[in-house]
Design goal:
The protein is an all-alpha fold. The protein has one domain. It is built from three helices and no strands. The mean pLDDT is 86.
């Protein structure tokens, strides 16, 4: 079974490494158009945005959300 990884290259030297791997046929670079967000996810985000516009009191601060999900 083939494993797919999605990478964002942030450092200049990393780009050269990716290019070398591509030359060795070790990786395949795919265009952005190869990834599509399913329509149901787009619809869900739109529904949630609308809901929270009408119920802003249910939103929490990002820092508070991080505290809630952090594990020590």
């Amino acid at each position: 079974m083939q494993t797919t990884y999605h990478n964002v290259v942030k450092k200049e030297y990393a780009s050269a490494v990716i290019e070398d791997l591509q030359k060795m046929d070790a990786v395949e670079l795919l265009p952005d158009t190869a990834f599509q967000v399913p329509q149901w996810q787009i619809d869900e985000i739109r529904n949630r945005k609308e809901y929270y516009k009408q119920h802003p009191d249910e939103l929490i601060d990002w820092d508070e959300a991080q505290k809630m999900i952090k594990t020590d």
